[in-house]
Amino acid sequence: MPSVPYPLAFAAVAILALAVSPHAQDTSERPAWQEHGIKPQSPDSPFGEVVSGLYFRSKETQAMQADDFNNPGFLAVEQGEDLWSKVDGAAGKSCASCHNEAATAMKGVAAAYPKWNGKLGKPVNLEQRINICRSGALKAEPWAFGSPELTAMTTYIRNQSRGMPVAVKVDGPMTPWFDRGKALYYQRNGQLDLACASCHEKNHGKYLRADFLSQGQSNGFPVYRLRDQRLVPLHERMEGCMQDVRATPYKPLSDEFLALETYVAWRGLGLPVETPAVRN
Amino acid sequence: MISPLNRRQALALGTGAVLATTLSLRAAPALAAKNSTDEAIKAFTGGKEPVKGKVKLELPEIAENGNTVPMTVGVDAPMTKESFVEEVMIVADGNPNPGVIRFHFTPSSVPEANTRIRLAETQNVIAVARMNDGSVFSDVKQVKVTIGGCGG
Amino acid sequence: MADVKPRIKLDKKDVAQGGVIEVKTLVSHTMESGQRKDKDGKTIPRKILNTFICDLNGKTIFSADLESAVSANPYFQFKLKPEESGTLTFTWIDDDGSKIQATEQIKVS
């Protein structure tokens, strides 16, 4: 019998591996996420390079986000734009009554959220800020979390900061919220016993079955998810992650998620706001 | 004299077996349809066997998510009043129903279109184009669809 | 289907005879497939946009028949070779019979 040369035997092992798990092993299809990021802005950052989730996605998904017309997230931007000047509530006002043009008044605003609110003595995120305006100045019913209106308005306002760096403040009164968010980020949860950090810090750039793990950055939220075929706000995504690890999720807009949102924004300090991003 | 296979030879045999599997997976049309795809194609072509070529289907090899898969179909054909692509049918052989979309063209359009489709699992997507003279052409692409990391 | 405003983009609105216009359309719709079940295990009935038509001066020059395997918020990109100036009408027809419509003017010289 002819002897089998080594390279062939080696190829057999490689092909076997491919056949078992085409995704996990196929390096040619793996998105090249390195060197698409920025230098960490804080010496305490856990990352060597801070990279947007965009670069962990396939070329098709990146192409969908690159073209504003192709990007279905713009349906929400347009809905938000309509709502901006729509009179609602007992005061007979719209957002535009106080803020005029969103393009100027809201430029850069969302990049700094969540933000300390002195009156409430706690930070608020953008959804909560919108609802403070609704129940206050507009004398209108606050929008429910996850409602198309609240998500569209959040998307529209965050879109006014597109391209601007995430600039959340975590010092002063925000410090305990940052600390709490950090503790939650490293806390293991659920039957799978995974923390946020287990996937997004220790294993980004690797496959978890078919999923190519990102750094779990929030700069693109609300994001248009290919899976849900609609805009998904950040707290819903966090809820999803917790369900996936078989944990009981915190409630959207809860103090826990607010602390986590603050901390996660800090992990992505300096990343450009991408809202509405397209994700898997 | 037959000697027992040594480790290297066993691995080499393994190579053949695995290669065969891989190749048959790549020869996508060989997989049996899970729905009435074949019937849908026959109804569309009037029983004619489509000729491979002229139609080009562009789909990702691996879908980032099966719920939104970008797809482009194009037909290499002149569009004149005498000769034009009449209709292109897209079917998916692993979805609950074969039908995905049909595009109707005229001499006033270019036989090319892009949309986003849902694929329930790894399967073949087939494009069949029918010219105004009744001739039919096809292309097929296999798209791998997987569920996310935690099953979410 | 309150305030459904389709997004339509033509790469140009003025072409020479024989020239090509690229059209992109995006419309908000859940494209309920009829395959999903609600919390009580009952099948959610199918409700999709089943037809898309692009007319030039009332004559159809491109159209599509959609099935439930088209993703939510249907997006189309296609190319036209219009022979005359006039009105492009884009129509989406829902399973419930309602229509979403929009128009664009083009010039062919």
Automatic annotation (TrEMBL), chain A:
Signal peptide: 1-24
PROSITE patterns in alphabetical order: CYTC
Subunit structure: Heterodimer of SoxA and SoxX.
Region (Disordered): 27-46
Root EC class: transferase
Keywords: Electron transport, Heme, Iron, Metal-binding, Periplasm, Signal, Transferase, Transport
The Cytochrome c domain, residue ranges: 75-161
The keyword Phosphoprotein is annotated on this UniProt entry: no
Pfam families in the cross-refs: SoxA-TsdA_cyt-c
UniProt xrefs under NCBIfam families: thiosulf_SoxA
Name this polypeptide is given: SoxAX cytochrome complex subunit A
EC number(s) from the headed UniProt entry: 2.8.5.2
Compositionally biased spans, kind Basic and acidic residues: 27-38
Major place of residence: periplasm
Reactions accelerated catalytically: S-sulfanyl-L-cysteinyl-[SoxY protein] + thiosulfate + 2 Fe(III)-[cytochrome c] = S-(2-sulfodisulfanyl)-L-cysteinyl-[SoxY protein] + 2 Fe(II)-[cytochrome c] + 2 H(+); L-cysteinyl-[SoxY protein] + thiosulfate + 2 Fe(III)-[cytochrome c] = S-sulfosulfanyl-L-cysteinyl-[SoxY protein] + 2 Fe(II)-[cytochrome c] + 2 H(+)
UniProt superkingdom: Bacteria
Organism annotation: Methylorubrum rhodesianum
Source lineage: Bacteria, Pseudomonadati, Pseudomonadota, Alphaproteobacteria, Hyphomicrobiales
From TrEMBL, chain B:
Protein keywords: Signal
Positions in coiled-coil regions: none
Domain Ig-like SoxY as annotated: residue spans: 42-150
Pfam family membership, one: SoxY
Signal peptide: 1-32
InterPro entries xref list: SoxY, SoxY_sf, Sulphur_oxidation_SoxY, TAT_signal
Official protein name in the record: Sulfur-oxidizing protein SoxY
UniProt organism field: Methylobacterium persicinum
TrEMBL record, chain C:
Any matching Pfam family: SoxZ
Coiled coil: none
Source domain of life: Bacteria
Domain Sulphur oxidation protein SoxZ: 13-103
InterPro entries in UniProt: Ig-like_fold, Ig_E-set, SoxZ, SoxZ_dom
Protein name (database record): Sulfur-oxidizing protein SoxZ
Organism ancestry: Bacteria, Pseudomonadati, Pseudomonadota, Alphaproteobacteria, Hyphomicrobiales
